[in-house]
Amino acid sequence: MNEIVGQRQTRRPRLLAIEWLALFSAYVLIAGSVFGLRIYMPDRGAALFSFEHYLLPLAAVIVVGVFWGRGSVDLKAVQLRCRLLASLAFIVFSHFNIKLWAHLINETKWDAQFKAIDLDLPLLQQACLFISAALKSTLFGWDSAYHDVFVGMFVLAIIVAAFDGAAALERLVTLIGAVLVFGGLSYLLAPAFGPFIFDINRSPVQQLMLSFQLSFIDSGGANYSGENFIMPLGAMPSLHVAHGWVLTWVVARMHVWIGVLFALTLIFIGAEAVASKWHYLVDIPVGLAVAALSKCFVRHFLPQAGSAKSMQRA
């Protein structure tokens, strides 16, 4: 009898670490709605933008994995990938809702304080401008490099992890989810728009996002349409840097030379974040702190939360 009970217990599926993060995100959304905060939905364009940035590489890995086996599909590997994808999709949805809520929950704006820190560190500012200009010149003036290179890191990291095995893929996707969860919550601590608000020569995108954000706050969250789902401003912390750091850490453990490429890319992203006036200098180390917290979470909880180490290669 005890053996039968033991077999049933071993067959019971365990939650993956990222599923715990998704469950926690659901609790946050429920708590927010209980206290009167609205849950915002994206329109088709915003949903596609989110999918392309965070989910498309993993979805592609699932599809390729199904057809790569040439008649022998590893159902456990496909199931793992689908669970990772579903959890990450919900975390992305929760993340943007929390980012929208941040300026409604905490009405204090820290832009003036963060700008003062920037002014006290002119050499660091100049270093960021120099690195950004130097790397942009080697990229032949690639105007959207900050965005495109960041997305490219996601794509390449997912592919590398998928080839390395199920454990590596789970570790990477869980780290991405952890950065979104912890980073989203950190927006509530010291909300800031970004240093571009002090510049009259803002880019059209910066002006559009600022106009929406001010209207959204003034209306108490009522002035919203689905296209605004991806428009909330959140300078503190820099999650571009946080994601870049965890992607570099995971990839470097598998392939040193790709890790070196990622490290150089991370330097560009950090410098360009400041040079383009999306972020203050202080946002960079706080972004690294979010990455370190996410790394600690994965190291501590992943083995106890349904790690894929015992599964076959993804």
TrEMBL record:
Keyword flag Membrane: yes
Keyword annotations: Membrane, Transmembrane, Transmembrane helix
Residues passing through the membrane, by range: 20-41, 53-70, 82-103, 149-169, 175-198, 256-274, 280-302
Protein name from the UniProt record: Phosphatase PAP2 family protein
The keyword Transmembrane appears for this protein: yes
Residue span, Inositolphosphotransferase Aur1/Ipt1 domain: 144-294
Pfam families, per the entry: PAP2_3
InterPro entries listed in its UniProt record: Aur1/Ipt1 (IPR026841)
Protein species of origin: Roseateles aquae
